[in-house]
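[SOLVED] Need 3D model of a two-part complex

Original post:
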Amino acid sequence: MSPLHIKKGSSKHSAYNLRPSFSDVQERHTLAVLVENEPGVLARVIGLFSGRGYNIESLTVAEVDHEGHLSRITIVTTGTPQVIEQIKAQLGRIVPVHEVHDLTVEGASVERELALVKVSGKGDKRVEALRLADIFRAHVVDSTLESFVFQITGTPEKIDAFADLMRPLGLIELARTGVAALSRGS
Amino acid sequence: MAQTMTGAKMVVQALKDQGVDTVFGYPGGAVLPIYDELFQQEHIRHYLVRHEQAAVHAAEGYARSTGKPGVVLVTSGPGATNAVTGLTDALMDSIPIVVLTGQVPTFMIGSDAFQEADTVGITRPCTKHNWLVKDTDRLSATIHEAFHVATSGRPGPVLVDIPKDVQFASAIYQPKPKTIARHYAPQVKGDMAQIEALVAAMEKAERPVFYTGGGVINSGPAASQLLREFVEATGFPITSTLMGLGAYPASGKHWLGMLGMHGLYEANLAMHGCDLMINIGARFDDRITGRLDAFSPKSKKAHVDIDPSSINKVIKTDIPIIGDVAHVLEDALNLWKSRGRRVNTDGLAKWWRQIDEWRKVDCLKFKASESTIKPQHAVARLEALTKGRDRYICTEVGQHQMWAAQYLGFEDPNRWMTSGGLGTMGYGFPASIGVQVAHPDALVINVAGEASWLMNMQEMGTAIQYRLPVKQFILNNERLGMVRQWQQLLHGERYSHSWSEALPDFVKLAEAFGAKGIFCSDPKDLDDAIMEMIEHDGPVIMDCLVEKHENCFPMIPSGEPHNKMLLSDAKATNAIAGKGAVLV
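Solution:
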């Protein structure tokens, strides 16, 4: 068991679990990578993706176990099933990588992202922004007479939808954390 | 007893504890404290090369011919950047190398100091792992870990960057740990269920073939021994990649010769027509597979590899086995024996009749000439005159490399040093120096092309200084032969910049360094010249002037499958076209 109470996944033996064929279908996978918290480890992971031409849709990293010197990197990537398996195997090869988990295939998981959204406007638009924020359960964390900063959490799709709605209402700045994800259950 | 010592002394102590007796290197400002410690001891012998790239290639030659890790010591900045080609070469061919680099003192890092480079940043993609040691406390443990990472699992190069103040400061020395208690522990035992599936497939196969690679050599002598036993017992044909030559003896009756782009006709057609492919320690490199969608279309494929990322990377595998070659072969062999040593005798007999038909094509035949030395003839004579000797062969990269692989026979592992994955011109000469250092009494020959050889010719100084009697057998066609061949095949015979108009007089060059030079251009003199080269007690450059426009066949043109091989010049011009043209 890892310090995060995730059962050791199939990633180390990914070769045994390859899905039926080398299909061309692009899949979106969320990977949780547990790494030694040492200088350069993020560069190793990112360098792997750029060097081998893999996609990164989102990447978050932070220390999760101070005593164990472990950080957790959550990567959302897209690729064919073969490329996804290859990414996992390549990540597993990096010396300071402890564990690689494919949350997309290892049972159910939850994904959340946080965003700060600055919207500027007056009159009706301002009221409408506030009303929509309420529907999306976004909080106002800063307010002036001409602007709001909303804090919204949810799946990346929910944040996309919120940002799309805010755009005509005066969206001027958007900051997103990237995806954090955990497997469901114990 | 905890011992306190300086970082520089720690480096030497840690190398000693790791059983290192040979280091290839080049001093400079940022490693002077370590060089000072080397000066004051007698356990470790340091070989001064003439260029840091050569230090790494020499260490590769040393490592590949002994199975031990090669060790390199160079300075910061240019010392480290010059080592990059060697590191990449070792990474591609899975050679265990430990490179120690000096670095500017910790308090100057990031200030664009003199001879500062971001060494760990630059070498991150070309090492298996690397470390910047910022604290002398961590230095000895890091060096021990570096050796562990370089030599375990799939071997590879590692680098430890040591700032100068860390070399001067003192701390307690940590001795070599008995076991490395870290998460990095590659799996060596193969999954028994998969091994069983392999054995079951072997019992039934009508047209099996063993396809072996450098992983067999890296796994150690036991792996080669087990492979030989398995091949003899089953009677299956066996072919090997460039990197795996010698694991199974070339004189063995099941040997098909090398496969791949310039592999033998029978080997490639056996790969194309087999119904069971048993890949042991090879990685389906593009030089091997040719066109992927037409690669061995009717076969079930088993793949034994210690690196999970090699499996299913380009070719879909039916029976993947992650593990060390020797461990997996031992388990598979034992299981096969205990299940009654079954093979499909009728199927195999028919398969061998088919292979014998392919062999009759005699794909390595060439037209000898009475006036000029054919390069194939030169290599064939080298083989005839050195066979049976305690012989190690290195090569540079190009046509001569392929002819060496085709016409020389390797009876044992660790006898063949060549740059496979990266294709590094300039590899062979320094590698031959590393091999000779490891095997002082052996006959070490570097089969070279003149263009590759010139890339690291400065190492003549090293050979002379340490009295290393390396033989430089240069097949001189005054061309970049392989480039020229591709220009003929792909670019309408427009030979853009693929010849040299200003080659040195190699005999005089040898003499200028204090070595022996031999020139030969007449086929009648060839045997005498080769004998003179191998009998001479000291380094020799043999300038063997060969036919200038000879092409290397057989050849699978880029973008073609195994069964579309070119066997001669007849159809060669503009043979690479369409989609194949963008491939290298």
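Edit: Residues 262 and 402 of chain B are 7 Å apart (CA to CA).
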